């Protein structure tokens, strides 16, 4: 990819979490940047209101600015989530512009730095953000392209021109991570997912094998994962012994205390104030990579308690005498199981009510028995309709497939009736909204609802 003559960069799908990080990067670097997205979001509002981005939500090629009309000086970055028939994307394609997927551009940018890449079907966003936080709060430093909004920094992009390291979330969707060549890599999970892209779990595993083969240096896997074609540096775990592990886990006033045990290092009595036992495991992976990148044990001890997490990962929005309201991005059965198990452990005495919005018809069709099993960890499940994202409906595939197999009480509601149902029926306990669709648009509604009801 030749970027030397590029003056302007247009993003088709600019509101995506990965796309927006790239857009922010190029704007900071002095390029003309604009973009299109289907719908406005809190992220795009921040970009337009506070960062002066030009973003259109109208799929009309007439909305493309004059500075982007010179195809010899314009790079177009797009995401596969945008339909091929999109008019703006079609204009660029039909007129001979240089079109590149987000992953290609990210791969190009990563080659000038030592890339620390976190891959996995779940756990990667929190682990990536935690690793970036540990490096940023050390003498090592880093730039970072995150797959979520860091609660510490309020952004998905960190830039450090002095550091040799760049932390990258390596996304397996559409084989995007195969554009990366990490210095150090982690694989957190390789569960069946994105079968609309891969077809079978075996094909997904092959892609992870390819990613591993592209890793130049150390490679760490969660305990229980194995690769056939690549030697690994070691496994990590929480609560069970392996090459690198968290030991003596205990809950202390809403935080986790644990010891980090490595092959040649021990760091005693670390504190993690971010909820969820699964996040002790994520922290173990982040600490392991940070140590290999040169962060000291004392820097880790000082920084870890200050980590606030990632937006939409165990996000607590309201805490009243009667209701604790939390939002989480979990959208795969294994993620849901890990999340609900964690909140059960943290607040065992509370009634657990979960509102879940399935994401994609294909994923629902592939995993509806597993979704039902995971969601049955709750005391009551509120099911919304499937969020289609990039897909057309599949006949017979609705949230009823999950509802019919739940072993706990369930109610199905429309998005229109959702707030009224919650207002009437969620009066105490732990309330969790979950999903990767647009269920997060209800966060301010419920936050205000519960905080107001408490006064």
UniProtKB/TrEMBL annotation:
InterPro entries recorded: Mur-like_cat_sf, Mur_ligase_C, Mur_ligase_C_dom_sf, Mur_ligase_cen, Mur_ligase_N, MurCDEF_pg_biosynth, UDP-N-AcMur_Ala_ligase_MurC
Intracellular or extracellular location(s)? Cytoplasm
Q: State the similarity comment.
A: Belongs to the MurCDEF family.
Return the EC number: 6.3.2.8
What Gene3D superfamilies does its record include? Answer: Mur ligase, C-terminal domain (3.90.190.20), Mur-like, catalytic domain (3.40.1190.10), NAD(P)-binding Rossmann-like Domain (3.40.50.720)
Identify the NCBIfam families for this entry: murC
Enumerate the UniProt keywords alphabetically: ATP-binding, Cell cycle, Cell division, Cell shape, Cell wall biogenesis/degradation, Cytoplasm, Ligase, Nucleotide-binding, Peptidoglycan synthesis
User: Which stretches make up the Mur ligase central domain?
Assistant: 118-290
Question: In its UniProt entry, what is this protein called?
Answer: UDP-N-acetylmuramate--L-alanine ligase
- Predominantly, its location class is cytoplasm
Lineage of origin? Bacteria, Pseudomonadati, Bacteroidota, Bacteroidia, Bacteroidales
- Any idea which positions bind ATP? 120-126
Q: Coiled coil: present as a keyword of the record?
A: no
Locate the Mur ligase N-terminal catalytic domain: which residues? 9-113
Query: What's its catalytic activity?
Result: UDP-N-acetyl-alpha-D-muramate + L-alanine + ATP = UDP-N-acetyl-alpha-D-muramoyl-L-alanine + ADP + phosphate + H(+)
Whether ATP-binding counts among this entry's keywords is yes
- The scientific name of the source species is Butyricimonas hominis
Q: Per its UniProt record, what Pfam families does this chain match? A: Mur_ligase, Mur_ligase_C, Mur_ligase_M
Functionally, this protein is described as follows: Cell wall formation.
What GO molecular function terms would the record report? Answer: UDP-N-acetylmuramate-L-alanine ligase activity
User: What broad class of enzyme is this?
Assistant: ligase
The pathway entry for this protein reads as: Cell wall biogenesis; peptidoglycan biosynthesis
Q: Report the superkingdom from the record.
A: Bacteria
Residue intervals of the Mur ligase C-terminal domain: 312-409
């Amino acid at each position: 990819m030749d970027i030397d003559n590029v003056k302007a960069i247009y993003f088709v799908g600019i509101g995506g979490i990965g796309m927006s990080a790239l857009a922010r990067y190029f704007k900071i670097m002095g390029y003309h940047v604009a973009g299109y997205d289907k719908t406005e979001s809190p992220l795009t509002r921040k970009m337009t209101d506070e960062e002066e981005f030009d973003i259109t939500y109208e799929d009309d090629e007439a909305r493309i600015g004059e500075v982007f009309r010179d195809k010899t000086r314009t790079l177009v970055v797009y995401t596969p989530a945008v339909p091929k028939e999109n008019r703006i994307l079609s204009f660029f394609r039909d007129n001979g512009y240089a079109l590149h997927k987000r992953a290609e551009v990210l791969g190009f940018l990563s080659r000038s730095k030592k890339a620390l890449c976190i891959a996995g079907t779940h756990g990667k966003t929190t682990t990536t953000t935690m690793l970036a936080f540990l490096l940023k709060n050390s003498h090592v430093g880093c730039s970072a392209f995150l797959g979520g909004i860091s609660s510490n920094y309020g952004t998905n992009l960190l830039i450090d021109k002095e550091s040799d390291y760049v932390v990258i979330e390596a996304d397996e969707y559409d084989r995007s991570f195969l554009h990366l060549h990490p210095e150090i890599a982690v694989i957190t999970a390789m569960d069946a997912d994105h079968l609309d892209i891969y077809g079978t779990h075996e094909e997904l595993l092959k892609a992870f094998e390819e990613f591993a083969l592209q890793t130049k240096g150390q490679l760490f896997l969660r305990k229980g994962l194995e690769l056939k074609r690549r030697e690994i540096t070691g496994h990590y775990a929480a609560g069970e012994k392996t090459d690198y592990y968290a030991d003596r886990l205990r809950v202390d006033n809403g935080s986790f205390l644990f010891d980090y045990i490595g092959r040649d290092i021990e760091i005693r009595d670390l504190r993690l104030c971010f909820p969820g036992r699964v996040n002790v495991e994520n922290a173990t992976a982040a600490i392991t990579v940070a140590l290999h990148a040169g962060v000291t044990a004392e820097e880790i001890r000082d920084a870890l308690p200050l980590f606030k997490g990632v937006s939409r990962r165990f996000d607590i929005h309201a805490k009243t005498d009667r209701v604790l309201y939390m939002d989480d991005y979990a959208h795969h059965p294994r993620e849901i199981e890990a999340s609900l198990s964690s909140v059960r452990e943290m607040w065992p005495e509370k009634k657990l009510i979960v509102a879940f919005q399935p994401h994609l018809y294909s994923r629902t069709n592939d995993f509806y028995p597993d979704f039902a099993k995971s969601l049955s960890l709750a005391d009551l499940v509120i099911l919304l309709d499937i969020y289609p994202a990039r897909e057309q409906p599949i006949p017979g595939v609705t949230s009823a497939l999950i509802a019919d197999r739940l072993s706990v009480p369930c109610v199905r509601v429309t998005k229109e009736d959702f707030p009224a149902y919650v207002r009437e029926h969620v009066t105490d306990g732990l309330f969790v909204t979950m999903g990767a669709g647009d269920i997060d648009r209800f966060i301010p509604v419920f936050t205000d609802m519960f905080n107001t009801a408490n006064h």
